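no rush on this but wanted to send it before i forget. theres a chain ive been looking at and ive put its sequence and its fold in token form underneath. i want to understand how the tokens follow from the sequence so walk me through it. thanks a lot i owe you, the record is right below:
>
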Amino acid sequence: MNIAIGSDHAGFDYKTFIIRLLIKNGHQIQDFGPVSSVSVDYPDYAHPVASALENKNADLGILICGSGNGVCITANKHKDIRAALCWTPELAALARQHNDANILCIPARFVSKQMTTKIVNAFLESTFEGGRHQSRVDKISC
């Protein structure tokens, strides 16, 4: 799977950790930065990840910042992006299964790396169930 990933400075360490996990599991990665933990503005990295999905240059996306909120809000401004803030594997699975989420947002300051591994795996291993959920997802876009 081709996965676009980005973070801010607060999520940089987790981004690096997740990239290693994804590569180990055979995924292709598009790393949109940043390249260090020096303070940056999260929209500068969330927009390119969301654009990669919009333009069909990536299958799914992962964004990480301190709370997960900033990157999630930013990504959801893009057409056909359904970014979900998840701090448990159950939320990540449900975001994919029920909401057809295509970007996982992780709050680096509130989950361990062990939990992050479980969250990422749950997100990637789940698929949209469609059915009764499809009509709800169809009503999301303005």
